[in-house]
DNA sequence: AAGCTGAGCAACCGCACCATA
DNA sequence: CTATGGTGCGGTTGCTCAGCT
């Protein structure tokens, strides 16, 4: 139903603009099949050439994105498990918004999906929990300020190792300390201790 | 039932980096 | 050394849909 609406929109887009121009917007089922079929028989290669050779009126960039984020056979979509969420949160705490790097630690997940997941789910929860935490601090001054030293401890990753099994999947390169010069490099930045101090996240 | 709103997601954009001619 | 083209990445946009009033 929704897809049909998309196709109708695409038809309108195509009809209203010059046919020769490179297409943008949602991919049609037909385009998907062409791309899948072409890559199945010829491999990925140079994307600009691929787009031309396959007869797709798309940029190589668009084809690459569609293939990597959606059409690849090993792409897993939806249903991010709690374990994956924990891993995403921990790796984000280590590396910041290095989505492609994070995605490499989650087989079948794409950087785009993780990025979207972070922005729509985790970031919202983090903010919500931070808000709750601030409210608690404002209303209960009896709580000792132990968090400062804990928050600083993120720099030595060893003290903050999560204890879920997926951690064994991470290779040595992946575990190297992140090269953060300062937190201002990312508005989204938060430390792993922030996470461990606020979990479980389902605090709503 | 209709309108509104926010969440979720696919896709695009712009920039940086790299390879090669 | 420089220009050019291809690729990868992070940020952002815009569309769709479900839930709410």
Your description of this structure?
- This protein is an all-alpha fold and 204 residues long.
- The protein folds into two domains: 2-71, Orthogonal Bundle (Arc Repressor Mutant, subunit A), CATH 1.10.10.60; 82-198, no CATH class.
- The chain is built from nine helices and no strands.
- The longest helix has 29 residues, at 111-139.
- The protein is elongated, with a radius of gyration of 22 Å.
- The two termini are 33 Å apart.
- The relative contact order is 0.10.
- The model is unreliable at 1-19 and 139-204 (pLDDT under 50).
- It binds a DNA duplex (21 and 21 nucleotides) through residues 2, 5-6, 9, 24-27, 46-48, 59-62, 64-66, 69-70, 97-101, 111-113, 115-117, 119-121, 124.
List descriptors.
204 residues; mainly alpha; Arc Repressor Mutant, subunit A; 54% helix; elongated; disordered N terminus; DNA-binding
Order of helices and strands: HHHHHHHHH
Distinct helical segment count: 9
The total number of structural domains is 2
> Distance between the terminal alpha carbons, to the nearest Å?
33 Å
Overall morphology: elongated
Helix content bin: 40-55%
Runs with pLDDT <50, length 5+?
Answer: 1-19, 139-204
| Rounded Rg | 22 Å
**What share of residues are in beta strands?**
under 5%
Number of strands: 0
The class by helix and strand makeup works out as mainly alpha
Mean pLDDT: 63
Specify the biggest β-sheet.
none
């Amino acid at each position: 139903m929704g897809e049909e609406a998309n196709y109708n929109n695409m038809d309108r887009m195509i009809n209203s603009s010059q046919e020769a121009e490179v297409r943008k917007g949602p991919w049609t089922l037909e385009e998907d099949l062409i791309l899948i079929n072409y890559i199945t028989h010829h491999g990925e290669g140079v994307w600009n050439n691929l787009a031309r050779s396959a007869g797709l009126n798309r940029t190589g960039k668009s084809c690459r994105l569609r293939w990597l984020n959606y059409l690849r056979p090993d792409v897993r979509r939806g249903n991010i498990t709690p374990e994956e969420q924990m891993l995403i949160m921990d790796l984000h705490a280590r590396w910041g918004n290095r989505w492609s790097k994070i995605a490499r630690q989650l087989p079948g997940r794409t950087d785009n999906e993780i990025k979207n997941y972070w922005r729509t789910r985790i970031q919202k929860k983090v903010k919500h929990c931070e808000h709750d935490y601030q409210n608690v601090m404002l209303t209960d001054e009896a709580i000792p300020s132990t968090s400062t030293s804990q928050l600083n401890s993120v720099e030595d990753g060893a003290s903050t190792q999560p204890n879920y099994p997926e951690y064994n999947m991470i290779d040595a390169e992946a575990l190297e300390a992140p090269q953060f010069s300062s937190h201002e490099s990312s508005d989204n930045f938060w430390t792993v201790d922030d996470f461990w101090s606020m979990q479980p996240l389902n605090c709503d």
